[in-house]
Amino acid sequence: MTGTLTTSMTTIAEEDLEALARGAAVLGTGGGGDPYVGRLLAAQALREHGPVELVPPADLPDDASVFPVAMMGAPTVMVEKTPSTERIGDTVAALAEHLGVTPTHIACIEAGGVNSTFPLVAAAQLGLPVVDGDGMGRAFPELQMVLPTLSGIAATPMSIADEKGNVGVLTTVDNRSAEALARSLTITMGCAAIISNYAMTGAQAREGLVAGTLSLCTRIGRRLEEVRAEHGDAVAAVAGELGGRLLHTGKVVDVARRTATGFARGSAVVAGESGDLVLEFQNEHLVARRDGVVQVSTPDLIIVLDTDSGEPVTTEALRFGHRVSVVAAPADERWHSPGGIALVGPRYFGYETDPVRFDGAGAP
User: Which end of the chain is flanked by fewer CB atoms within 10 Å, N or C?
Assistant: First the structure.
C-alpha cells in the first residue's frame, strides 16, 4: 500500500522518468494516459529546467499551497493529440491568479502514465517542488473520484485549458457538478484538456493524499527493469511490490472499445487455461469476471501486464492476440469505506454487483 511507504528519493531527474512512468502505468490500472507520451513531455521540461524536488506529504507546512495538475479526457485521444507543455504550467498559473495565492507545491491527483508526469512538467516550469503522493493511489475516470473528496476538499475553483490556448476557470456547487461541467468542456476541447483543481493546504494534503506514490512508481519501474535483465518473472515481481496476486493469464481474443462522453469505454476477453476472463473498463479496468462471476472489482486494482515483459498495457493498447497477465491488488483502505464505495464502487459505474474485494483473506 502506498500510504505505508517511506522513500529516500529527494529529487526526480530525467533519468528517473522511464521507471516512474512505467510504474505509474501499472498503478493506473489501464488508464491515466499513455506513459510514453507523459515521459516525453516531462523529459523535455526537466532537460530545460533541471530536476524537481520531491517532498513527502508529512514534510508539508500546514500553510503550504498545493496545486494538483492533470490531463482530463479519453486516453485514446491523448495518444493522437499530444498536449502542449506550455499549457501545463499556464493552467496552474491561471488557477493561482484566480485564487489570489502563490503556489508552493505541485501534486499528482492520480497515478497514471500521463498524470504522474504532467505535474513534473508544471513543477519544472514553475520552479516548485512536487509532492510525493497522489489523490487516489491508482487511477479513476471521473474528476470527483479522489480521496480529497472524502476529506471534504472542494474540486473547484478549477482551471481548464486546451492545446489552442483557451483557458477557463470553473466554480461549482459540488465535486460531482465539477465533473459534469468540466467533462462537457473537455469534449468541446476535443476530448482532452489540462486541468488544475483541488488546490489545498499542506494540512489538507497530508490528510487527503496517498503518500509515497511517485517513489512507489519509480521502484516498481526499476524492479521491472532488474527482473527482466535477470530473465525473472516480471509479473510476479509487480504482484509482490503491490501485495497482489496473479488472477489470470491468457491471450486477448476480443476487444470492444469506443470513445463516448469523454471516456474510453469497453470490454476485453482474455482466453486462458482457466477459462475466459472478461475485463470491463471505463478508461481504467473496473470489473473482472470469469464465467459470469465477478473475481475482483473496483475500488481494488485490476492490472493488465504483458506476460513476457511485465510491461503495463493500457486500455487503449489492448489488441487481439496480445498475451497478457492480469494482476489483482488491494486499493488504499479508505476506498473501502461507505463513502469510498459510493464514489467508486461498481454500482456507480452501472455494474449490477456489490464490490468484490481483493485482500489477504478473500483473494481471487
Answer: N
**Res 143 pLDDT > 60:** yes
CATH number, domain with residue 253: 2.40.390.10
Task: Pick the more confident residue, 38 or 23.
Answer: 23
Quick check: 324 and 304 in contact, CB under 8 A? yes
User: In whole angstroms, what is the distance from residue 188 CA to residue 235 CA?
Assistant: 39
- In angstroms, rounded to a whole number, what is the distance separating the alpha carbons of residues 348 and 353? 10
Instruction: Give φ, ψ of 27 to 5 degrees.
Output: -65, -25
Return the residue matching grid coordinates 481474443.
253
The answer to whether residues 1 and 208 touch, using CB atoms and an 8 Å cutoff, is no
Rounded Cα–Cα distance for residues 157 and 25 (Å): 28
**8-state DSSP, 364:** -
Query: Crossing angle for the helix pair 213-229 and 17-27, nearest 10 degrees?
Result: 100
In a domain, 100, yes or no: yes
Angle at 175 between CA 174 and CA 180, to 5 degrees: 100
Cβ(214)–Cβ(20) below 8 Å: yes
Helix (H) or strand (E) holding 225: helix 213-229
Phi (first) and psi of residue 149, to 5 degrees:
-60, -45
Residue 353 lies in a domain: no
